[in-house]
Amino acid sequence: MKRLSLLALLVLVLALALVACGGGTTETPAEGGEEVAATEAPAEATEAPAEATEPAAEGSMECTDALGCVEVAPGDPILIASALVISGPNIELGTDSQRGVEIAIAMRPEVLGHPVELQAEDDGCSAEGGQAAGQKIVSNPQIVGVIGTSCSGAGVPMAAIISDAGYLMISPSNTSPALTDPEQAWKPGYFRTAHNDLIQGAAMATFAYEQLGLTKAAAIHDGDPYTEGLASAFYDAFQALGGEGVGFEAEAADATNVEPLLTSIAAAEPQFLFYPVFQPLAPLLTNTAKTVPGLETTILAAADGVFSPSFLEATPGTSEGMYLSGPDLSFANTMYQDEFIPMYQEMFGSEPTNVYHAHAFDATNILLNAVESVAQQGADGTLLIGRQALRDAVAATSGYVGLTGTLTCSEFGDCADAKIAVSHVENGEFVPVWNNKDGSLQ
Amino acid sequence: MNAIDWRRAIRIGLVLGVAVLIASVIGMVQTFDERDMIEDILTLGQLLLFAPAVYAGYSAAGKSEERRVAAPPLLAGLLAGLLTGVPAVLLVGLAGWWTTIRDYFVNVSPQLIDILTFGRGALQGSLMLLAVMAVLGLIGAAIHLIPARVRRPLVNATLITLIFSLFSDVPLNIANQFLPRDIVRRFFPTKGVTQLAAVIVFALSLAIALWWEFSGRTRRQQRMATITAEQRRRNSLIVLAVSAVLLLVLPSILGTFLTNVMTQVGTFILMALGLNIVVGFAGLLDLGYVAFFAVGAYVTALLTSTGDLGLGINFWIAMPIGVLAAVFFGIFLGIPVLRLRGDYLAIVTLGFGEIIRVLVRSDLLKPIIGGAQGILDVGRPSIGPLTLVTPQHYYYLLLAACLLALFVSWRLRDGRAGRQWMAVREDEDVAEAVGINLVGTKLLAFAIGAGFAGLSGAIFGSRVGSVFPNSFELLISINVLAIIIVGGVGSLPGVILGAFVLVGLPELLREFVEFRLLIYGILLIVMMLVRPEGLWPSAVRRREMHADEESPPSVAELEAPRHEATQPMV
Amino acid sequence: MTLSQRLRDIDWIDVWLWIFRILIIVGVVIGIVRKLFFGAGTAYGVDDWLDFFISGLSQGGLYALIALGYTMVYGVLFMINFAHGEFFMSGGMAATYLVASTLAATGFMNEQPIIYLVLVMVFSVLTSMSVSLLTERIAYRPLRRAPRLVPLITAIGASFFWQYIFRGFFGSAVKAFPVPTILEGRVNVLGLDFLKVRLMVIIVSIVALIALYLFVQKTKTGKSIRAVAEDKDVAALMGIDVDRAIATTFAVGAMMAGIAAVLWGLVFKQVIFSMGFVPGIKAFTAAVLGGIGSIPGAALGGFFLGVIEAVGPPLILEGLGAPGAHQLKDVTAFLLLVLVLIFRPQGIIGERLAEKKA
Question: Is A380 found in the same domain as A321?
Fold first, then answer.
């Protein structure tokens, strides 16, 4: 009995090796044209763009796109996916962005006569979360494009999967410079409406050094790729401007007793302390800093990770006088205050919890605009959307006026209007005081 | 028998009512209401709201079989159902009277109240809710009136239909592989299933269940009674062959998404098999198991990455190095801690896991392993001209790795090492007295366990394509431990089943992310309460757990392990 | 295997252990020397060192209060109650959302700060106790005869359950804990400069620890708990209601956690649904450090851990030139734990309980 099963196991392993080798040859893109090929062939596109072509639609339309087409039958919705962090500690960031997507869809109930539907996935704010969400999305050939990811760590594997499968993604909040650096993680299907860390870090450094006239600064991060990237971008830029960096510290994101850390920093006597971290660490640092001797006169600053009313509620009094950097939403476009915010409150019963809803809103609109411009319409209402054409249309976005400014996509997918504003907390409210394009606003 | 336990009916109704209330207050009902189960008929939120009433009525009416139509049990069901609705109605009333309730309980939204009152206003809606719940309780009680041979198939078919629509992603993805899109759409809208699909599934499962009830079961019993040992062996060979073929063709049946889920399950099976050796065989509680996973992933990633930090070595060379690094690390850590016993070992291993977690994201090691920015462009393995990229490819790699690990575990368990581990697990002092080298035995378990985790980590890093610190949280250690205990400590099939339940199912329910960990927690508690020995316990464990029960274990159960255990090593 | 072979193995292991100990100690000594005498990293004044110490001491008081729950439950049931951190969280969350924020908004807080604190604390303690008793009744009691790993898993399940139930109730945002104005600022005691809340934490935790110790040692209920901890079957024969004694143990542990939660709110001025997990792990570490099962051990372990976490990074790690030293405070804490357990497997002042029963 036992020997038999042993034998069977051996055979199994052998057969497996065979199939693993043989399986590859049967899956080469040459044999497109079946339903299976629609999901599998693009996944092979790492070496060469897949030549898979869908069978011709019933009408006169034919898909000639290099990456294949999405066919939307009459009456069917145009399906877009989101992959944002909607679980775990960074949930506020992702939920807020997802609301931006939902509002964009609610404001555009129909595109070319089809309703728009959202399939919401979770990027888990981790590499494996981005990988899983990416695979789930590319397994659905009906999905036109993706809004996501929230976190850069999830964006790296997802950009590869999405891009290789011929899809495209527009991230509302990835800020890691690596993602749009062709030397590192950039992929042709990757775009973002969020600004690059280097820009925000430099803006904050310029503000502290030139506007406030401070010469000694320190920074804290929490080991998250976003906070670490932003904190070091700031720290480097501040020193490059001629300022003195007196401390670059790190703390665990789930830390509790931050008094020793702040005492250490106080001993170096910084005039400006920048901690671009999330909740709950950011309010904790803010609340504690005021009680640490030596930091009484130090100016505290944080970034868009906590640029939200809930941060102010968590730091009553202690956040007074802080500076927070973030994308400039006080942009002349009045639609934000007049239409977007009221709609947000009506749909979700609360104030925005972050700022990236605006980027998600813009990303969704850029995607839908591209769909509108490239889709072939059949006589019966069928849509044929070429994936390469869609990418090209998104990449060609130029001078698009959105909530976050006037957006133009660069060669490597950076679409943000890199306008960073610094706000001052006065009487428990954010007051914009400076931005990196116009300088002081007062 | 005939007397109805009214107090019990009230208690059941109220307990379930409070459960419904809590599910409403935490926002579960509202979130789940957006998920269709059966198009235009039933949402998951409604199921969450109404199923408890049916169940309350069913269990309040008592347990007696073949009851004649009588008022008291039906009345008890009605009462229990009604009570299930009462707490929710109180919530509706409270929300109407206390207008700022949302400042305290964020999820008590107007939409929730709308769902609870069918959008008909507080008073009329509340009455309606109570009426619906009472009727559902009555229906639940009335289930007892159906003859048992029809009742069982009916209940089973209903449950199968519900499960089918809850996990509609699975049939949807399989159907996508074989059927044209416009046919698939007739059965599966974007979420859940269509009415047509629900009816078909219900009818099919009902037919099969009825057949089984009326004829299939007796036939099988007759067959089992007459079957010879020869036939039985042949049958099991057929089963083995069929499952082997199935395992091989699975990726082309499942499609990309489900295959990717399989690779995630495989990653955890591999880790769980390793931890099973440490915890299940040798009885050493390790709470920091993720450390070895991280070592395997980081070493392999550093060696194969084509980015700034990496060396760009071939994966097939790097992987064994990664595994060896994990083994070495296991021994390195094992030596200082293996003299500790029980929970002291648990906390120290937990500590090591945390140290690794902190170190990989620290500024201290950033120049070497990338710190917060992780390692990009991890190398992918290639076999001849084929580079492994898709989930399908990694499925086969993981399948091979899992089979290897399974084979190693199985040989070790039944060999000399397994017996030594078991002796150490049962009583260290006695084991030492009979001449077992405690430290060596424990180190062996630790090293092999670490090796499996290292292998899993190596494949993980390559599969995801990049390695970031937040993939190595304490939660992974906890999850792996839960897998082996829920599956059945020390049981190899149990470990695999556990991984499917605790990794696969949550992955299929990704849309409930917000409540995933809540459901996970409930799942852990309920499973342990219902089956403390695990889903598929090892024979030894099953005997231990039921030692105090009256029924003696069957001969097969007693004989099988002993037979295996005394076989000489091949 | 012959005896000589075995001896050789053990020798080899011992050599390794000594290398391990010496490496850690040498590292610590080099770090301290470089920091104090050669001025590595930032230069700290005496005041700074005192701040590190006091901050760590008060943090340690909080750890000690939470650790008591672990240690008492372990003493009675030999079970790691992973959900204990959530008992702590539940009290803090419920008290902040339902009582403290309301009383602060009406202005009652600053009119009657003492009554305010008492009310908040009572509510927090009651919530923690209810959550703890409910968990014990549903998730632990039915499994008292199951293998030891089984209640560990239900405890982990209960931990997730409560965390996400409370998130569902109150949301995932950080909530400010209102602190009465009389507790803001600093006070000078015995020439030492304390933050008022920190001083209060140190005092309250020491008082609570002593009260608990007396309760367990002197009262009848305390004696029944100790009897059950010695031997459940014999205790039952003596007429002690074992279930009741165990439930009392849970309740008392949760009471300490409820008190700790309010003190936590006062110090950090905020609560969040995930606040229980990390302190739970740390407190468990503290309990083991002191010697699990022993009440004075938990207290000592808690204070020790708090101080090491605060003083270790600037003193040792900065001395060794590690960047981002405070990020590594968990490394210091856990290395210390390993070191202590290698030297004294039963913890600092623990009984040799592990050998006996674990």
Answer: no
